[in-house]
Design a protein that fits this description.
Elements (H helix, E strand, L loop, with lengths): L2 H5 L1 E9 L4 H11 L2 E10 L6 E10 L2 H18 L3 E6 L4 E7 L4 H11 L5 E8 L5 H5 L5 E3 L7 H14 L4 E4 L8 H6 L4 E5 L11 H8 L3 E8 L9 E8 L6 H24 L3 E4 L2 E4 L2
Parallel strand pairs: 5-6, 5-8, 6-7, 8-9
Antiparallel strand pairs: 1-3, 1-4, 2-3, 9-10, 10-11, 12-13
């Protein structure tokens, strides 16, 4: 996509009480404002008094000049249907910060996706409570910040992290195997802006040593779960999950190796969908327009 095409490309996400005429009204509105719909997805939780969700991508010539009027005019339509809505233009590239501890596999996958142009983001910085991945990060020209963190200095560490998030104007925090518990105040500050990867197919095997417990249980499937972070540990809205089949021949180290592959791809998908505005959070669930 060229710079001009990017400037003229936008997305609209809508959530409102379901009822007749919503799709027609939105489509007509975009037509009247010279927009061409490129992609459209919709879902209703219940056609009888349910909630309606919609994601539309559209192209509008000279969007940068017309954007203010477009959004102002849409407010009247949104009020008519009691819509919660959001316009997200391609030119407004989201800025991300990646948090990581010692295991680099999820970080490496995100860097690869970013280098190949498959993640629509500016990686503003990488933050770690260990110094192990500094070389990997700085070789890509990305600022690296080593901030020691443990339960005794957690608030002090988070104060520095918050300062950096504000300095870098970050839109999304990615926990790429960042093995620290976040405080409630930190999570509340970045509601629906923190994506985590959990090394099990939630809600099974939450907490520490999931692969050891999975091995002891003799599981035949292992998986990974990417979700938004809330103050209920590992209970946030799930964005993506995947699995791999295993058997009695696979020991703990085999499970960990297979698990890392699943974790990498699950986190990358979840982050990509968030960046492309394909996720709408409703209570503790997500609507994902893949």
């Amino acid at each position: 996509m060229t710079a001009t095409e990017k400037d003229d490309h936008c997305r609209l996400l809508v959530q409102c009480p379901d009822g007749p005429g919503i799709v027609s009204a939105i489509s007509t509105f975009l037509l009247e404002h010279g927009a061409n719909i490129i992609e459209s997805s919709q879902y209703t939780s219940d056609p009888d008094h349910g909630t309606f969700f919609m994601r539309i991508e559209f192209h509008c010539k000279n969007l940068m000049e017309e954007r203010t009027k477009l959004e102002a005019d849409f407010a009247a339509l949104a009020d008519k249907f009691s819509m919660d809505y959001r316009f997200s233009c391609h030119s407004d590239t989201k800025r991300t910060a990646i948090f990581v501890s010692k295991d680099p596999h999820c970080l490496m996958e995100l860097l690869w996706e970013w280098q190949s142009g498959d993640l629509e983001t500016d990686i503003a910085c990488v933050i770690s409570n260990h110094d192990d991945v500094r070389g990997i990060v700085e070789s890509q020209g990305i600022p690296f910040h080593y901030i020691p963190a443990n339960k005794d200095i957690r608030e002090q560490a988070e104060a520095e992290q918050i300062r950096l998030m504000e300095e870098y104007d970050v839109d999304l925090l990615i926990l790429a195997r960042y093995m620290q518990i976040l405080t409630p105040s930190f999570v509340e500050r970045f509601q629906d802006q923190i994506i985590n990867i959990h090394h099990s197919f939630l809600p099974a095997f939450v907490g520490a040593k999931p692969y050891e417990r999975a091995y002891d249980r003799g599981v035949k499937l292992i998986g990974a779960t990417s979700h938004y972070v809330t103050n209920e540990l590992d209970e946030g809205p799930i964005i993506e999950q995947d699995i791999e089949r295993v058997d009695h021949r696979d020991h703990v180290e085999d499970l960990k190796k297979i698990g890392r592959k699943v974790e990498r791809r699950v986190l990358a998908r979840a982050v990509k969908w968030h960046l492309e505005d394909r996720v709408i959070v409703e209570d503790n669930k997500t609507i994902v327009f893949r």
